[in-house]
Amino acid sequence: MSRVTKIKHVLKEQEADDFDVPTGNQRIVRIFASRGNNLHEVEPDQDGEERFLVSMPVKFRKNVWIKRGDFVLVEPIEEGNKVKAEISRILTPEHIKVFEKEGVWPRKFSKKRTLEDDLDEDGLFRNTNRKFVAQSSDDDDDDDEEEEDEETSGSEDDENDDEVDCTDEASNRNVTNNEKKPATET
Question: Most-buried pick from 31, 62, 140, 142 (CB within 10 A)?
Fold first, then answer.
C-alpha cells in the first residue's frame, strides 16, 4: 500500500462516525506531554493515579498528530514497565459529546466540573496566574482602616514629593545641557 493510500485509509477510519463507548479494559485519558519516539505521557481519568506513558501504534505514526490536551482512548498492554497502554482511538469533540450523553465521560475531564472549581466565592473566575490566598472577613476590615490612614497622611507627603521632583528635574536639565556641550581637550 502506498503512503498516500495509507494516509487516506487511516484518516477515513478516524473520521468514521463510529461512536462506540469504551469497553471494559479501555480508558479515556488526556495527553499531558509528548515524550518523543511516539510515546506520550497521559493524565489518567481517575484522581490520585500517577501519569503514565502510552505508545502510538504504527498505523497512526506520521499520519495522525496529537497535541497536549487531546483526549485518546487507550488499551492496556502487558509488555512494559514504563509504557502501560497503547492508543486505540483519538477522540474528536463529537466523540466527547456522545460520551457525555451516554454517561461514560469521566467527571475529571468534564467542562462543568472545571467551571465550578474555577469560580471564587463572588462568582468570578479565579486568576490561575496568581496564588490563591484565602482571607478572612476580619483581615478585610483591618485593611480598610489602614488604607484610610494612608490616604489622610498622604497629603503631607505629596508636597514633599513635589519638591523632590522639582530638584530632580533641575538636575536632569543640567545633565542634559552638559551632554550637549562638546568636550574640550587639554
Answer: 31
